[in-house]
Amino acid sequence: MNSTTPRSEFLAGCRSQLPIIMGTMPFGMIFGVLAVSAGLPQSLAQSMSFIVFAGSSQFVGQQMLGVGEPALILLLTTLVINLRHVLYSASVEPYIKHLPARWKYLLAYLLTDEAYATTIVRYRQGGELRHAHWFFLGAGFTLWFSWQLSTAVGVFLGKEIPPSWSLDFTMAVTFIGIVVVSLKDRASLAAALSAGIVAVVAFDLPSKLGLMLAALIGIGVGMMVENNRPIAQPQADKSTNAPHTNFHE
Amino acid sequence: MILWLTVLAMGLVTFAIRLVPILALERFPIPPRLRQALRFVPPAVLSAIVLPELLRPQNGPLDVSLGNLRLIAGLLAILVAWRTRNVLLTIVAGMGALWILQAIVNRFA
With the CA atoms of A86, A34, B49 and A243 taken in that order, what torsion angle do they form, in degrees rounded to the nearest 10? Predict the structure, then answer.
């Protein structure tokens, strides 16, 4: 990595996403199909991928828009679901703080789980980092483009699929996959289980308050379990789950 | 119109979450406790969305019976996700199970 150029970094960023978009494009399609089956206009479904560009919250968002939940509840839910991006943003900050503002805005818009995953590896690998923000841009752009494209395919197919296919259930099984695969320690398992149980019990509270309550209790239980652990978990183990930064408080 | 404004606001909320630490981390560092809490947000929130979908299907009452096809399909999906660690396979298994169960029920019930 002695002589990097913006072009070589950009292309490397694009390549880093290729295995990942094989996995995310089906979700983009499912989202498009779901949003249209939920009764949203095709242009709105496509625009959600463009404007929001955050898969999980789009899945929940199309469902809530479809059944007419109040906007404030939807925004609160969006905030909670996407809050994890604060960690990614804080994690890349030391590497991009020298860039002009327009770069920061652009890269923030492109900052997804997937783009973060490969970009942070590039930054930590070190070497010549002068043009590494082009890697970030390449990774972010590739995921963005594939997300728009796959949404469009789903939106196009959505109208053809009858309700008897129970496609609304794809959101549940998608989230099951994401959650179960990400559970790598007792603390996150405890967080998931307690939040799920509270959500079922408190389901009848007005305005999706049950969801908020469940999330808060789940987070609290997760922290308690983690902090009660007799021997601290090694750092290397944690990094598989959560981004940790070079930034020291 | 309200739909569009809502989606626009969703986008602004998401963008702000991604942008603010990049712009302001030096002045307002994230406390370690908050950092720890944020790690548990995805499993807690997603699980809080999923479990009611299985146990209270289509926003109905609690249903822990063999007649709750979504619960059975969901449990199978959990098993597949746990054994294979593969999200796409989980989706295929869960949806496949639901379709087969629905076909059986429609035929014999």
Answer: -30
The DSSP element (H or E) to which A217 belongs, if any, is helix A209-227
ipTM score: 0.92
> Which of A169, A209, A217 is the best residue to mutate to test the B interface, defined by the most B CB atoms within 10 Å of its own CB?
A169
Residue A143, chain B, CB below 8 Å: the answer is no
Whole-structure pTM value:
0.84
A51: number of CA atoms within 13 Å, CB side? 20
Those of residues 43-72 in A touching chain B at CB distance below 8 A are: 44, 47-48, 51-54, 56-57, 60-61, 65, 71
Interval A23-74: pLDDT, tens? 889 889 999 999 999 999 999 999 999 999 999 999 999 999 999 989 999 9
Task: Name the nearest CA neighbour of A141 among A102, A123, A114, A101.
Answer: A114
